[in-house]
Write a structure and sequence with these properties.
single chain; about 1250 residues; mainly alpha; five-stranded parallel sheet; four-stranded parallel sheet; about 5% strand; elongated; Death_dom; TIR_dom; Death domain-containing protein; Toll_tir_struct_dom_sf
Length: about 1250
């Protein structure tokens, strides 16, 4: 053979050249094995091996005959370090014929697992590069039997254990084989995997990128798999934590240089994810916090290269972020750990906050990752005070170094900790006020009003500055100081002086901004007006300007408080003046909003309760407005007529409250003047006494001298002393009188203060009554017309409604109202201009033969000095309730949308098919918007650039239409340009679908969401609904708790009727307010509450009927005992959700916030902050909790807190056992079949009836 003689070597070489196929065929099959055995005997003949390999490569049959021998050959070659020859056999034979080698894959891998550790250390890197790499590449790309997965995983461990540069790449490639490994079964082996990866920290790599980066890729894959397979976390926890401990030790330690290498830092970032959060303890947090602080200290002294520093810092920043996560997981940290956190934060804050390149420094980045998690988990004052040095340092940075971001840090802490631990926050009130007043920083504005009751003195000390600077900033500043002014005046209106009131009104007189930000200022002035009405005698004109020019309801409320309080103080004269002013306001044809008109009648009633004679004298003036329901109630009160039970109850409560006020209130101004005079008189007497005292002292000295020579002077001295004693007694008595008068005035001020609360309560009651009244119909003729049309006839209000074009369902809904014709006419006037509505009504009345009614309207209009034209270019018909605003680029999609909406029961106005152009088309668009209830803005990128589209949006906003924006393509929100400020107030619906191949342009669930949003404002027309959208308003939700109705079978046996139609709750108990993007979770919550015995009302089950969904929602909130607010960022921006929370808060309902998504701060920013300020939330964000399959977020332990709150609010429900059935439910009539209408099923009575139960409403 060639290895035994040089001659033979030459022979083999020549043979290889002349007969390259010499080993392709064998006469005797056993000879093939002989050649395989001989070729691996040392010394190895490369030519011999090459000839064999090429023959086996060419001849698959030869390979099949000897496939079991090939792994043996490779093993022998590896053991003698012939890596290249082993690679030839593997790559050119096994991999070449891989499809035929399936039977030898397992023995091949087992051979490699056995052999690789025996290869010399200096050849292992080549082994990985030549042999293992080729094999794992083929295994990774080929389909393999999943039974081999555990073997593959063991092979990965063996490969990593080779501890060479090439090994991690091979292991990574095989580990990333998709959909192959049974991760949960392999979980125990991940401990070894992590240990082997960590062992590579002994490699000193000076470059940022290297082959060892595969280690972090492996650990990242493990972390991702662990998220779905919790046992992996338990297996990796100890190894990962130990490595983090070791790597995060002080970088100046000469024995610990590992963390300086990039591949170790990268591994560290992934290992942090493999620490099992369920096993994290306070001790673990403590050790990691110490490491962070030490790194901050060392970072200042070290002189590593910039790249090394960045690498190390990136690891420690991730470590800080993980510590922040552990704080969230543990929630309650020991006092000592809080101390360590405070020390770390303070150490970081003392370092520069920016690098030379302007980027945030490592120290600040690490501190920030922890700081923003601390406040929400502070539970006592002792822990919180540990952070006062940090807060002091932040204040120094903000005020002295002008680091404005320090204000953000402070705000984050105080906005949460200040609410939880107000006693500590109260110690810093001076600082907060200084920031607000001196630096115009409004960051503490949400907290300051809540701290007022804790320490009012600092507020009082700066009251002059607060009032002087109230109008010196931007809109947000005016609003912020106004809020503080409101908080002070609500508690102590007597502190406000005449000078301060005059200053406020002087500023208001020159104020040119909107009146929205003045809301709280006017409310605060209202409190002052209740207590000190004499301060407002000269400021009625300013209030009237805001009422008439800006329709400001708060300004009117302030005026009302002043006039009512003045009537109590000044009597009949002020009552007459107030009533005259109110009547003059009512007589104005324009400038007075309907809400204000309603409140005026209520104010007149309050004045009448105080002074009935003055109100009776104005009776004739009020009769001119008797078409308005509120005025009719007032006239009934004047005349002593019998009123409805509801109105009588409201008036009775009003009478009782005013009567109590009259008994307690004395004449405030007269008392103040009297006290002033008494004090002045006493001051004069004291002065006189002092002068007399001085004179008597001199005379007494003379008397003392003369008494020695003349004893008779003693009698004179005694007389002087008696006079002094008598004067002192008189002064003491008079001073006591002054004290008593002062106490009486304080009592009067306190009692007058109550007027504010009483009026507010009465206003809410009137608001509730007003929800059932109509006010758009002109008062001059509305009452008479509705009375005539309500009388049953062939041409009554129903025929009028049909001629106008209203649907049968709308007419049926109005027929259920107490005044159906008024409802119809009001709807007509709401959707048309007044002149057009009047003309159209008279014209239609003439056509249906109701000239008697038309005559009343004509005469009333003529008496008002106006005329109804004989003809107007105006089409007399009910306009579609939906207006589609779009840009022509998406016309096809909008046309399809119009078709679907009309099939769902909503007629739409769209400018396709509208004849004419220019002004004529604009006129039709104007009418279409005015006649609509809802405007749907179909927004694409060109929409905001279109002048016509902008015109439509502005008209919609100015006419108070409900706007629903649809995103017709991917774009930023809010859109750029002039449309941005308007649309930023609305939540859009993503109405495009890039994945669907259907004819529709939108995802199916988005169209359902759109229908639900429209339903809030408009009921669908059942006559228009096509078969495709039949009963779309009846939800089809699987696995809900449906109460099954009962019936009887043919044998008379009672059975349950099984269907998927949910039942409507008549007497619910809890209201759940939510935004539609979390509807799935809310339905799951509904299911759980229903199972526990709570009666639940869902808006998605209330879509039927002809009334507005808002009316049903309003009833739900007003009747609820408790409101669950499911808070998300979208929830805080939703206009509908804001309305719900405002109403719930105004009605003093128990509100329990459930935080479903992160809002950055608590309370969440925006208008809802005031509602949620003092309400602790229940955290359902569950960022790091693994929810078991088949479970939802309500399966978390936080749900127990929800039940605990509900038990307080709804104590009559016992939640120990789930309820299968509930009472007081019925099926929606829209969902009943024809046969079921005839015979309604009975209910299973298995739950106790609770008297006067409230609403459980899911919104």
């Amino acid at each position: 053979m060639s290895h035994q003689s040089r001659i033979w070597s030459d022979v083999v070489s020549k043979l290889a050249r002349q007969l390259p196929t010499v080993f392709d065929k064998y006469q005797n099959p056993s000879d093939t094995r002989i050649d395989l055995v001989e070729c691996v005997k040392e010394p190895i003949s490369n030519d011999y091996v090459a000839l064999l390999v090429k023959s086996y490569q060419r001849n698959v049959q030869l390979f099949k005959m000897n496939s079991s021998e090939i792994p043996i050959v490779i093993e022998k070659l590896l053991l003698i370090s012939e890596i290249d020859r082993a690679h030839d056999f593997l790559y050119k034979i096994i991999i070449e014929h891989f499809d035929s080698a399936t039977d030898i894959i397992e023995p091949l891998i087992r051979m490699l697992m056995r052999t690789c550790p025996m290869v010399n250390m200096d050849r292992r890197n080549e082994l990985c590069k030549q042999v293992i790499s080729s094999l794992v590449r083929k295994l990774g790309d080929s389909k393999c039997n999943k039974k081999l997965a555990p073997l593959f995983f063991d092979f990965i461990l063996v490969t990593l254990d080779l501890h060479v540069m090439e090994a991690p790449k091979c292991a990574e490639r095989l580990l990333k084989k998709p959909e192959f490994y049974p991760w949960k079964e392999l979980a125990p082996k991940f401990k070894d995997l992590v240990r082997l990866c960590v062992a590579y920290d002994t490699f000193e790599i000076k470059t940022y990128f290297s082959d060892l980066d595969s280690l972090s890729e492996i650990l990242e894959l493990v972390a991702n798999r662990a998220k779905a397979n919790a046992p992996i976390f338990r297996a990796t926890h100890d190894e990962a934590l130990e490595a983090i401990y070791r790597w995060s030790t002080a970088s100046t330690d000469n024995t610990s240089t590992k963390i300086r290498c990039a591949h170790v830092c990268k591994m560290g970032g992934q290992l942090l994810q493999l620490i099992d959060q369920k096993q994290v303890t306070a001790d673990i947090c403590s050790r990691l916090i110490k490491a962070l602080e030490q790194r901050v200290i060392d970072n200042e002294d070290e002189e590593w290269s910039e790249e090394t520093n960045q690498t190390m810092n990136s690891f420690f920043i991730k470590l800080a972020g993980q510590v922040g996560t552990y704080i969230e997981v543990l929630k309650n940290l020991p006092y000592e750990v809080h101390g360590q956190l405070a020390s770390f934060i303070l150490t970081a804050l003392k370092r520069p906050h920016q690098n030379e390149n302007g980027q945030m420094s490592f120290e600040y980045s690490a501190a920030m990752a922890v700081w923003f998690k601390i406040a929400q988990f502070l539970n006592n004052t002792a822990d919180a005070r540990l952070y006062e040095p940090c807060l002091k340092q932040l204040r120094s940075l903000a005020c002295d170094d002008e680091e404005t971001k320090a204000f953000d840090w402070s705000t984050t802490f105080w906005s949460i900790a200040g609410m939880k631990i107000p006693d500590m926050a109260a110690d810093h009130v001076e600082e907060f006020l200084s920031d607000l007043i001196d630096r115009k920083q409004t960051h503490m504005m949400a907290l300051l009003p809540t701290l007022y009751s804790k320490r009012p003195d600092p507020y009082h000390a700066r009251l002059d500055e607060l009032i002087d600077g109230m109008f010196s900033g931007d809109i947000s500043y005016v609003s912020s100081l106004g809020h503080l002014f409101w908080a002070i005046t609500k508690e102590h209106p007597e502190l406000i002086t005449e000078k301060q009131v005059n200053h406020i009104f002087a500023s208001l007189k020159d104020y040119n901004g909107t009146s929205h930000e003045l809301h709280l200022i006017f409310q605060g002035l209202g409190f002052v007006a209740n207590a000190q009405p004499h301060l407002f005698h000269n400021h009625q004109d300013v209030l009237l300007r805001f009422i008439l020019e800006q329709q400001n309801l708060s300004a009117y409320t302030c005026l009302q408080y002043y006039l009512v309080a003045s009537t109590i103080v000044d009597g009949e004269k002020r009552a007459n003046e107030a009533l005259t002013l109110f009547i003059d306001l009512l007589k104005r044809d324009s400038g007075i909003a309907n809400d204000i008109r309603k409140q005026i009648f209520y104010a007149c009633q309050s004045i009448g309760i105080i002074n009935k004679q003055a109100l009776e004298a104005k009776k004739a003036d009020f009769e001119a407005f008797n078409s308005q329901p509120e005025c009719r109630t007032l006239l009934d009160f004047i005349n002593g007529n019998k009123m409805s039970e509801e109105n009588q109850a409201a008036i009775s409560r009003n009478r009782e409250e005013i009567a109590q006020v009259e008994k307690r209130v004395v004449k405030t101004e007269k008392n103040v003047n009297m006290v002033t005079k008494v004090v002045q008189r006493q001051e004069l007497k004291m002065l006189k006494y002092q002068l007399e005292q001085q004179g008597s002292d001199a005379e007494f000295a003379d008397l003392s001298t003369s008494s020695e020579t003349n004893p008779s002077t003693n009698d004179v001295a005694i007389a002087w002393i008696d006079r002094i004693d008598s004067s002192l007694d008189t002064i003491v008595l008079e001073l006591q009188t002054v004290t008593n008068l002062s106490a009486r005035v304080d009592s009067v001020d306190t009692r007058l203060n109550d007027v504010t609360e009483q009026v507010q309560v009465q206003a809410k009651e009137i608001e509730r009554i007003d929800l059932k009244t109509l006010s758009y119909v002109p008062a001059e003729w509305g009452r008479q017309v509705s009375k005539l049309l309500n009388q049953r006839a062939d041409n009554d209000w129903r025929l009028l409604g049909k001629r106008f074009g209203y649907s049968t369902s709308e007419l049926r809904h109005w027929a259920l109202q107490s005044d159906p014709s008024m409802s119809l006419i009001n709807e007509w006037f709401v959707t048309h201009k007044t002149d057009e509505a009047t003309y159209g009504l008279v014209k239609m009345l003439d056509e249906i033969g109701r000239q008697d009614v038309a005559k009343i309207i004509r005469e009333a209009v003529a008496e008002a000095g106006e005329l109804i034209p004989d003809d107007m270019p105006f089409e007399i018909k009910r306009l579609p309730p939906i207006f589609l605003s779009y840009q022509w680029g998406c016309q096809k999609a909008v046309t399809t949308l119009k078709t679907h909406l009309e099939e769902a029961g909503y007629s739409c106005w769209m400018d396709i098919g509208q004849m004419g152009g220019g002004d004529k088309l604009f006129s039709k668009i104007d009418a279409g918007i005015r006649g609509a209830k809802v405007v749907i803005c179909c927004i694409n990128s060109a929409y905001s650039q279109s002048d016509n589209c902008l015109r439509e949006v502005h008209l919609s906003v100015s006419t108070g239409k409900q706007i629903i924006p649809l995103q017709m393509e991917k774009q930023t929100w809010p859109p750029e340009g002039a449309l941005g400020p308007i649309m930023s107030e609305y939540l859009f619906i993503r109405f495009y679908d890039r994945k669907s191949n259907s004819d529709n342009y939108w995802p199916a669930d988005r169209f359902t969401e759109l229908l639900g949003q429209i339903r809030y404002h408009v009921a669908p027309d059942p006559d228009m609904i096509s078969e495709r959208y039949k009963d779309w308003f009846v939800p089809h939700v699987d696995n809900l708790i449906f109460l099954q109705p009962t019936s009887h079978d043919k044998n008379g046996k009672q059975v349950e009727l099984k269907d998927d139609t949910p039942l409507v709750v008549i007497h619910p108990q809890v209201m759940i307010s939510y935004q539609w993007d979390r509807q799935t979770d809310i339905v799951a919550l509904y299911k759980r509450l229903t199972q526990l015995g709570y009666r639940c009302w869902l808006d998605i089950f209330q879509m039927g009927g002809g009334d507005s969904l808002f009316e049903k929602i309003d009833d739900g909130i007003r009747n609820a005992k408790c409101v669950l607010a499911c808070v998300t960022p979208k929830y805080t921006k939703s206009i509908n959700c804001r309305r719900e929370m405002s109403l719930a808060d105004a009605l003093n309902k128990t509100i329990v916030p459930l935080l479903l998504e992160d809002t950055n701060t608590w309370p969440p920013p925006g208008p809802m902050a005031l509602v949620f300020t003092e309400k602790p939330h229940i955290d359902f964000r569950h960022p790091n909790e693994n929810i078991p399959d088949g479970q939802d977020i309500w399966s978390l332990k936080q749900f127990d807190q929800v039940l605990a709150r509900l038990k307080i609010a709804v104590p009559e429900v016992q939640t120990e056992k789930p309820r299968k059935h509930l009472l007081d439910m019925k099926r929606p009539t829209t969902a009943l079949g024809q046969s079921e209408h005839k015979k309604r099923p009975t209910r299973v009575q298995s739950a106790p009836s609770v008297p006067q139960s409230r609403a459980c409403s899911i919104m």
